[in-house]
Amino acid sequence: MLSRSAFTLWRMIHAVAMYVVVGLALWMIFVYVPSEKGQGLVQRIFYFHVSSTFTMSLAGLVAFVASIIYLWKKAPRWDNIAMSAVEIGTLFCALVLITGSIWARPIWGVWWTWDPPLTLTLVLWLIYVAYLMLRANVQDDTKRARFAAVLAIVGGVDIFLIYLSIRMWRTLHPKPIVIQEGGTTGLPPSMFWTLMVCFVAFLLLFFYLLRERVFLAQSRHDLEIIRQEIDDTLKG
Amino acid sequence: MHKDLNSFTALMSSSKIFIQQVLALLAKDLKTEWRTREIFTSMFVFAVLVVVVFNFAIGADPQVIRKVVSGVVWVALVFAMILGLQRAIQCESEEDCLHGVLLALHDRSALFVAKVIANVLYMLLVAVCVLFLFSIWFGIDLTSCFFALWIVLVLGILGFSFVGTLFSLIVLHTRTREIMLPLLFLPISVPLIIASVYATASLIEGKSLTDITDYLTLMGVFDVVFLVLGLLVFDFVVEE
Amino acid sequence: MKNFWYLFAAYTIVWSFIFAYIVNLTRKNNALREELHDLQLYLEKIVSKKEAPQ
């Protein structure tokens, strides 16, 4: 295990890197990159919106892998990682849905459509929430971890089928009348690099949040252990 | 050669034991159900109520009704199944016989298979009754696509049963079962809901089986995936 | 400039959610770290007290 000082040093480096890159990203979004011709100013939501999509998917992947490792190795640390990843994933998924809605309103004229990516994100959010609610409703620690891991694995495998079925479903329905493509294909370089910097910023942010959340879970566990030790020492 | 023969006979005998245990568990569940008929009646009555309420909710326009028939049928079936699973789980937790059963089993996934088969049987029975009422109440002709409809029903009910049974055993240990089972079950079942509803709708419209092969494939893949997943993770779910 | 308020709303929401989560986490983490540290000291004290009479 890392010593206390090494941990705090890495934490500081991580935090500083994060603030710097986020600052750079914000500068690029609001000062550097030019406005998109068709959509104007509002299009800048795209940078954080897509980056959040990236983070929410990464969170799902981390939770899936961590859950498999937990069921294999039975070490609580992996359950903590899975849970933290899902929590953060729920946050970024909600952000995707909300920023997407806010972007859609001026551009498409509607707050929501049942397009494949939107529907898929909504169903993913429901699965994340189901995971968190399952954890909240199981009393026993080991059972909670195991059930949650099972759900994460089932959800992870299922997400492909969900994607396929929603795409199949959607090809039957007419698209909304006023839709202008967001234009992620063939991005001009300035937009592409702004997006890349945002990705890096969100990546750093995700791992920072993950680390903090896992530490919180681990500390709670350690607290229980110390309390138990104190009780034992006082009695014995 | 001798070793191969030995391992083959071992495999055969363990499969035989597996099938025997599945049948024994199934017989026990069905016998208990036959005495009270609680689960089946609640499922059937609920499905009927859903259909009746939908009738008021949708209105009298026959064009509209034709369009939503398939959706209504599957909503009624899915929610009836959730209700049935809740009842079954309640019985399990009240009697707490799960423990003993698991100890007696040679291979624990026999319990999963037995429960799934029981659920599928109840659901098929409910489906027969509901579809019969449907065709009378809404004047929908189901005889032309009868055989194809049953294929879609079986594929759908099978898939829902795999997911539902797995989650019902998880939900057994939670505090708020009534909301946890639908919350877990429904988002995960979205592919099957979409495929079942649209396959059935196409059949009712008059299309043939060959027209809905993509839906049937999706349903088939879903069923296989969740059968495998169910068997794989079942041990983790029922471990003490 | 016409859809400025949408842009503003989107970024404000993103910022608020993430900021609230970070603040929440950091506050809980610091409190826990302190409590762990205090309990660790307490444990050491009572263990040494137990061993002292011998």
Structure commentary:
Chain A has 6 helices and no strands. Residues 176-181 of chain A have low confidence and may be disordered. With 236 residues, chain A is mainly α. Chain A has a domain at 46-176 and 190-216. In chain A, helix 2 (45-73) runs antiparallel to helix 3 (76-108), helix 3 runs parallel beside helix 5 and helix 3 packs antiparallel against helix 6. By secondary structure, chain B is mostly helical. Helices cover 86% and strands 0% of the residues of chain B. Chain B has helices at 2-36, 38-58, 62-95, 98-104, 109-137, 146-171, 177-188, 190-205, 213-238. Chain B is globular. Chain C has 54 residues and is mainly α. Chains in contact: A-B, A-C.
In this structure, how is the largest beta sheet of chain B organized? none
The value of Rg of chain B in angstroms is 19 Å
Percentage beta strand of chain B:
under 5%
Q: Radius of gyration of chain A, Cα only, in angstroms? A: 21 Å
The count of helical stretches of chain B stands at: 9
Distance between the termini of chain A: 30 Å
Number of DSSP helices of chain A? 6
Sketch the topology of chain B as an H/E string, one letter per element: HHHHHHHHH
Mean pLDDT across every amino acid position of chain A: 86
Number of domains of chain B: 1
- Provide the helix percentage of chain B: over 70%
Biggest sheet of chain A, open or closed, and with what strands and sense?
none
Return the string of H and E elements of chain A.
HHHHHH
- Most extensive chain interface and residues per partner: A-C, 34 and 30 residues
The level of helicity of chain A is: over 70%
The coarse silhouette of chain A is: globular
Q: Low-confidence spans of chain A: pLDDT under 50, at least 5 residues?
A: 176-181
Instruction: Estimate the strand proportion of chain A.
Output: under 5%
Instruction: Give me the oligomer status.
Output: heterotrimer
